[in-house]
Write the structure tokens for this entry.
Amino acid sequence: MRIPLIILMTLQLTFSYAGVQSYTPEAVTNYLSYISGMMAGRPLSPEELAAIDNDPQGALNSILETWVGGEFFNESARIMIQTQLTTSGGDGGVNYDFPGNLARYIAKNKLPYSQILTANYCVDNNGAKTGCDTGAPFTAGVLTTKAFMIRNTGRFNLGRAGRLLKQFMCKEYPLDTKLQIPINREELIPMFQVLKGEPNSDFGNGFACYNCHSQFGAHAQFFVKFDSTGKYVSSATGVQNPNLEAGKSFNGLFTSHFNNIRTAISETSQMFGKRVSNLAGAAEVMARTPMFVECAVKNSLKYVLRLDHSEVATIPVPLIREIASQLPGAEKATLQEIMLAALKNPLVIESVLTSGEPQ
Amino acid sequence: MKRILVAAALIIVGLGCSVSDLHFSPEGWKPLSEGTTAQPFKIGRKSTQLMPYAVRLSKIRALAGNVPPELFAELERRRFEVGDFDYSKGVGQELSWSETRMTVWAMSLQPLCASAELKTKYPWPAGAEKFLAAAYGRTIRDEDRAVIDEVLKTPNSGRNQKFEILCTTVLSSMEFLAL
């Protein structure tokens, strides 16, 4: 029987770093030293060094497990979300700490990390649950905070939709059309109907408007009721204000992609092939996809290992998927589980140990 | 204070210890991916990228132990000058090291480095190696002893000032701030 080449390659990749790695004390010390600041807020302690000398593999596991249970880990979760969403502080009556506070709360209480998108509450600066501040009749974790809305405000709600996808799915437009079914061309306003090769198709990023906006539009629609200050306005219509530049509706709101007024006014739309009533519904869909937890793995590695964009791009996709596959389902995995799976992975450890200048 | 800062700066520059000098791949350890198709990803170590401000401060607090909070007041007051962020006010995180940032950082360490509490915890010279080991979270190496020797040789400085020079040097080093 001939085994397809793709299966052979997959098996080789799986087994090549699923084997037992025997770490020396020096290797474990070097690795944990690199991440101790970000994970525990301190250098390795003498007790930890002694444990590593005694049983490197055992110490690697036990030290990481201790760190994810510590108070600084919760603080680190807060910093991670603050810096990745670029929201922090307070200004003009808006609490920009809501997203970071929620991340810390989720970590501290070992809740599923998916609540970063689906929590039906916000968390104040004292760490207590509180209502969120957009005034929306639903809640969706960090998404229904003025902090997220204001930081990503912009015409057609493109910034909000784009950030949502990039931060939590690690994806950018255009998406695979099997994942995000494109809106029919005639349903979009004319400027987004432009196809490659047509007049004005060289404007923008080279994909021509329709390729991206046929998908962007569906996600941007979830934000049609939120004005530029992040306030929920139930009477928003999504209609273009003729006196303002393209993408701006009335009263600080933003224009819908849809040319039908009944569609433009509604916050019902499609996320990954599922029709949902509003942003909270979209968040639930996202939180249940494998992409959510894979992206959480990637963002966790980016944060703890302090990778820049070009370095993140070199993390092999099979590695991300292998780490994610060890976790208990997209909507269940805690941040602790995500971090442990990622940081215990032999190829991740090897990446840290083999980086830097050889002597 | 100026003499201490200058002495610390000379030691840092003179020993020329940079992030890229620190060899991570330990001897006797065979990479798992050797001879396989799975390849590790690369982490750039050449850039002097600091850890977030909150992490640096936490490391200092862990090293100092139970000391009066006012010893950190200067570090907290000048936090934006040394890389902390407040996005609501348009202040982004800065993780690169510059001469100005380094100077502000070293100056902000002075209340702590000059404190009786820290000098009692790490008395000079007996506590010098313990201080270094605690700051770096590892056993002492020859290059650490070289740093202590340089501090010992600093002219016109008494015992107290020598500890302050060591403290400023170590807590301003790339190994403490970036690794």
